[in-house]
Hints:
The complex is a heterodimer of chains A (133) and B (384).
Chain A: H1 22-29, E1 34-38, E2 44-45, E3 60-64, E4 68-77, E5 83-90, E6 95-100, E7 113-120, E8 126-132
Antiparallel strand pairs in A: 1-2, 1-3, 4-5, 4-7, 5-6, 7-8
Chain B: E1 3-10, H1 21-36, E2 45-47, H2 58-64, E3 70-72, H3 80-93, E4 99-106, H4 108-111, H5 138-153, H6 157-171, H7 185-190, E5 193-195, E6 198-199, E7 209-217, H8 218-222, E8 229-239, H9 253-264, E9 273-276, H10 281-291, H11 299-303, E10 316-317, H12 322-325, H13 334-346, E11 360-369, E12 373-383
Parallel strand pairs in B: 2-3, 2-4, 9-10, 9-11
Antiparallel strand pairs in B: 1-7, 1-8, 4-7, 5-6, 8-12, 11-12
Helix pairs in contact in B: 6-10, 9-10
Amino acid sequence: MAAESGPGVRSIAAPLVNAEIKPYFDAAAEGKLLIKRCRDCGEAHFYPRSICPHCFSERTEWQASAGAGTVYSYSVMRVGGPFVIAYVTLDEGPTMLTNIVDCDPESVRIGQRVRVVFRPTDGDSVVPMFAPA
Amino acid sequence: MGACIAGIFEHPARKAPDKSVAQLHAEVAKGALQDAGLSREDVDGYFCAGDAPGLGPLSMVDYLGLKVRHVDSTDTGGSSYLIHVAHAAQAIAAGKCNVALVTLAGRPRSEGSSGTQPRSWAAAAPDGPFEVPYGAATVNMYAMAAMRHMHEFGTTSEQLAWIKVAASHHAQHNAHAMLREVVTVEQVLASPMIADPLHRLDCCVVSDGGGALVVAREEVARSLGRPCIRVRGMGEATKGQDGGKLDITTSAAVHSGRIAFEEAGVTPADIRYASIYDSFTITVLIQLEDLGFCAKGEGGRFVADGNLISGVGKLAFNTDGGGLCNNHPANRGGMTKIIEAVRQLRGEAHPEVQVPNLELALVQGMGGVLSSRHGSATLILERA
């Protein structure tokens, strides 16, 4: 998948992927958003870790997110933009950093419902972003 | 007996294209020792953070020709230097050193680095892969804290602008300040939007320069014939994303402040001067709430109408102009916050901004990024 280019399209820096988080980016390449959930305390967390940040158990497992969420906060970056950085709270619980795309940046609001989409980066990886639901 | 800040020095340069970072560290070290009336040979402890070139303190100890028996390179970004003062006081109390030197210097202005760019160290951090692709920079991350604060509490851009207005009223008296023009709320709102809702004038300056402190055992400090500024309370804390359970309208200053106030045995009502870390206007507002100067959500009303202007409002803040107007060397503002608080306690601030008969001052620092992960440190200083 090649990154889009042209006016108004931001260069998306590729993440540095290591073994611990490779399943997340492998899934993203297939159009799936994964989060981690702990089999001991039952809590979901983000960003994904091998050991649960809530209870320190190593019994964490990957779980598919439905990819639906709500904008917790956002900002329209005017320098090198406009593009919208946002925190989106997934319906599964955790809040994740992302971009809001496929919409007028001026239209984004806190509380807005969004759904996951996937975008190629400058490298090999694909990353999840969100668009209005 | 405790530990005192016995020497301070703020580099006068705001742009230093022809100097090295190590050289700037050495210049501020000389300045602070001269201010204290001590010599390099008196220094037996050295403290620095990530702005110091080299591995931890090793290169700078060697560059400066120090002979030390205690080092500490704790790095919590811009709040590091407050933690260094606290750790120096603890090291002195534990008998590990008598005279601690703390230095900060950097050249982000000459090197073209600013808060609109992604952070260079972020890529290899465990959180980096989940932030770097999204264009997370310092300014848009703090902007999200401001946006959420406005959403939850009705805080307005006009209220945030008052923080810059107050800083500019102070900076007009500082010959070294980068921005000396007094600005109005309207001028702040008319400045270009950088990352909604933060305008250019909601942001601190980018400057070269640096500063240094000498923290000495109280017996040593008292022998020097200079005003003795004792470290009365200190607190440090960190806050992150808590595995995705975010709360970006409250900072770790809730904890560092409480610890410092308890140790000092005072309350916010006792504080008439505060140096408050001011990377952005929202940074000041949230920390003031978290320190207890007003209730959570009341920060906008607290800072409005000149309440932070010395001689006008109830709480004089950043009377050197702060990071918003004076300087922000190495993109790390904690050092200059401490220096101005010491000037105030010595009675050596500019006469137009000096708080009369000041005996207590608070210094609040924040490093890293408020809305992702940050370190907070609080100092309560007193004229001994």
